Amino acid sequence: MRTSLNNDGESTLLARLEQIEDGGFAEAEARFDGTPESVILHRDGAAVRAWLNVCPHAGRRLDWAPGKFLKSKDGLLVCAVHGASFELQRGQCVAGPCRGDCLRAVPVEVHDGAVVLAGQAPAT
Ligand code: FES
Asked: Where's the Rieske domain (predicted)?
């Protein structure tokens, strides 16, 4: 299994693909510059997209309990704190108090069913 390295030079397996419901979410922890960060994982078939679990509105976590995320009937990720709604391609807020802002993307790859970090730091 190929894995990626984080800033600490360690292999970083975030999750197994089969642990994430298709169309659903999971939460994982990754280290950036030695600092643990909560990461949102969203599965879309065989692909996974990821963002820091930090809402651009007030900097809070988006999940209502660890790893429990709200999804609207329209397929948007909804922040549990004040209801900002994010589309799941770019992580852009399309409704709510931080409309137009984006979640910070975390580069991930899927190799042999393993979801791993693919880069050094979240994109800004
Ligand atoms: S912290 Fe997410 S909508 Fe306010």
From this structure: 12-117
The answer to whether 18 touches 114, Cβ cutoff 8 Å, is: no
Instruction: Output the residue whose Cα is nearest ligand 1's atom 4.
Output: 82
Task: Tell me how many domains the chain contains.
Answer: 1
- Identify the domain containing residue 49 by its residue range: 13-117
Beta strand extents in 1-124 (DSSP E only): 13-16, 25-32, 35-44, 47-52, 70-71, 77-78, 85-86, 93-95, 108-111, 114-117
pLDDT in tens, 64-75: 999 999 999 999
CATH code of 51's domain: 2.102.10.10
Distance, CA 120 to ligand 1 centroid (Å)? 26
The span from the CA of 39 to the CA of 75, in Å, is: 19
Looking from the CA of residue 98, the nearest atom of ligand 1 is: 3
Question: Is any ligand 1 atom within 6 A of the Cβ of residue 101?
Answer: no
The string of pLDDT tens digits covering residues 88-99 is 999 999 999 999
